[in-house]
Amino acid sequence: MPEAPDLFVIRDFLEPKLVGRTVTSAAERKPLVLRNMTGEKFADDIAGRKLTKIDRKGKLLLVELGAERRLVISPMLTGGLRYCSPEDRMEASTILVFDLDDGHQLRYFDQKRMGQVYYLSPDQLGEIVRLENQGADVLDEPMDLDEFTAALKPFRGEIKGILTRGQAVSGIGNAYADEILFEAKLFPFRKKSKLGRTEMKHLHEAVYAVPRNAVSILEDRVGDAIHKKVRDFLKVHGKGGKPCPRCGSRISAIKANRRETNFCRTCQPGTMFD
Known about the structure:
Number of domains: 2
CATH superfamily of the largest domain: MutM-like, N-terminal
Structural class: alpha+beta
Order of helices and strands: HEEHEEEEEEEHEHHEHHEE
Shape: globular
Strand order of the largest sheet: 2-9-5-4-3
């Protein structure tokens, strides 16, 4: 899943290439992902519209097409974007293709079709719950510790689930939640209500430090390959069975709720009943 650091770099790459360009044609190659809320035929309605702004909110990209239309892209687990030549091989997972007036294409691909691309009018944005029901962005100006603690206060349950929900702080997904909790030395399944002031302080620091450090790395390494996930630099996520970079113990991998959680049992001690 592209998370705030990934989408930050993707947006920065796409903005100078897309803003000012006109969509000459568009094609929906596979169903289920596009949510056309305009009541108009998608291909006919978007043709001739100019891309005027690209923004990001949490784990979503927002594309303005003049004053009348918006694209909201929620890649979820396997979605992504590719900016390329029409001559480049069309992947089987490609869902949407936008032809641009400079001869390039913007493609949205999604292997498992779990994401959503909304095509709508600006006054319909409030109907997208995932867009409206978000907390402050993790890459925006950080909240201070008291504000952060207050933002988490309404939520119960395991701290990893609260982070990935996005209502307290937006932009954190499965991968960076693992990295944040490793940096903070917190057991991912620790109940939020059990966190003391010192633990909350460590969590607060890691929530803002880890994604910002990731942006710096991704800016150096992604280049024009925005369709590829660069995750090899992460310390624990996706590293189940490998040595912990802090203590050398084996990194654990637990699968629950359709996602894998990676952590170090030595550096992040705890139990499911803690």
